């Protein structure tokens, strides 16, 4: 039988009921339709998810399951307040492509040694996402959620200003390119926007001028995309080891190694889907960078979902030399293995 979904909204909580998949909701202090503490329904009761290993791939599955776009952040440490009752899941490990959180590996329902101070959460993009062939978290075909349907944007007048708004909305840095002509593949179904005209300073693509919802004369061959810079990269070695560089004010810069430790490196490795931090080389171990030195005195607890969430001395505020560039050596890509079967009741 085809999968049937019923979406209900109650007091800023969204519930998704799917046959053969897990019922899930976002709740807690300050929660919205697409951000909050993750709770799952199992054995006739709601319970939370422990944040051991919780990252953007796991949050991405939750956001997609709730029709909330893509994950912007994966807050830990009860960011939206501590839940009560059961803690149902721990050590959740998703590839990011699963359709339900229970398809991800986990330690088993109720099997954990956690406190509610470790409740996991998500902050989703809500009404926008990147999709298509070859897409990543920060590059892909632009899709908008309107009238309970995902649809695309036509490339009439599409430029870097428009792409800049999308990248910023998705917490993906600045726009590097604004691909047209279905660069990430042609979608099907609705084409929502055309003739989009942004100044580049808007907080959301829907704040820009456009021709009206569904008012267009083009086919999906003209679906637009974006390629964003992202916010962090490793340089000078491999994908999961190297000199740490962050993107700010439209340029890449390094991180000074004052106080640099495993907690800081852990955040970088998790943000890049590179497993856990193994070493924290200092003194420009992978060579000295060029240009800006963006961060210094970075202090992370290790639970942040992005390096820029950690305390630091302020962008560009430092007294460092080139020989002090910080680096990380991560364990490598997370091993997501095979998925568990869905739970039914």
TrEMBL record:
PROSITE patterns: SRCR_2. Disulfide bonds join 50-114, 63-124, 94-104, 167-228, 198-208, 256-320, 269-330, 300-310. One of its GO terms (cellular component) is plasma membrane. GO terms for biological process: zymogen activation. Pfam families: SRCR. Transmembrane segments: none annotated. One of its GO terms (molecular function) is serine-type endopeptidase activity. Residues 1-23 form the signal peptide. Residues 24-125, 128-229, 232-331 form the SRCR domain. InterPro entries: SRCR (IPR001190), SRCR-like_dom_sf (IPR036772). The keyword Disulfide bond applies. Keywords: Disulfide bond, Signal. Gene3D superfamilies: SRCR-like domain (3.10.250.10). This is SRCR domain-containing protein. It comes from Oreochromis niloticus (Nile tilapia). The lineage of its organism: Eukaryota, Metazoa, Chordata, Craniata, Vertebrata.
């Amino acid at each position: 039988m085809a999968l049937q979904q019923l979406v209900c909204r109650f007091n800023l909580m969204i519930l998704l009921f799917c046959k053969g998949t897990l019922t899930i909701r976002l709740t807690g202090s300050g929660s919205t339709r697409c951000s909050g503490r993750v709770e799952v329904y199992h054995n006739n009761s709601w319970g939370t998810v422990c944040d051991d290993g919780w990252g953007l791939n796991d949050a991405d599955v939750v956001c997609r399951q709730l029709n909330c776009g893509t994950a912007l952040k994966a807050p830990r440490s009860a960011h939206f307040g501590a839940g009560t009752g059961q803690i149902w899941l721990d050590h959740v490990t998703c590839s990011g492509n699963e359709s339900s959180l229970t398809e991800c590996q986990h330690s088993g329902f109720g099997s954990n040694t956690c406190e509610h101070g470790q409740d996991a959460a998500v902050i989703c993009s809500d009404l926008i996402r990147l999709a298509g062939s070859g897409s990543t978290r920060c590059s892909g075909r632009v899709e908008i959620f309107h009238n309970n349907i995902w649809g695309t944007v036509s490339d009439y007048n599409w430029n870097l200003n428009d792409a800049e708004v999308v990248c910023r909305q998705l917490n993906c840095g600045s726009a590097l390119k604004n691909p047209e002509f279905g660069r990430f593949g042609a979608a099907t179904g609705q084409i929502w926007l055309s003739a989009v005209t942004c100044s580049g300073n808007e907080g959301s693509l829907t704040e820009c001028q456009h021709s009206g919802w569904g008012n267009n004369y083009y086919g999906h061959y003209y679906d637009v995309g974006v390629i964003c810079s992202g916010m962090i990269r490793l340089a000078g070695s491999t994908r999961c080891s190297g000199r740490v560089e962050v993107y700010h004010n439209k340029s890449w810069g390094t991180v000074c190694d004052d106080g640099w430790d495993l907690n800081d490196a852990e955040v970088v490795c998790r943000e890049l889907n590179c497993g856990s931090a193994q070493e924290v080389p200092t003194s420009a171990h992978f060579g000295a960078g060029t240009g800006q030195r963006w961060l210094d005195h970075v202090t992370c607890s290790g639970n942040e979902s992005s390096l820029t969430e950690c305390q630091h001395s302020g962008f560009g505020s430092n007294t460092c030399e080139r020989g002090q560039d910080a680096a990380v050596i991560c364990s490598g890509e997370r091993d997501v293995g095979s998925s568990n079967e869905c739970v039914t009741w």
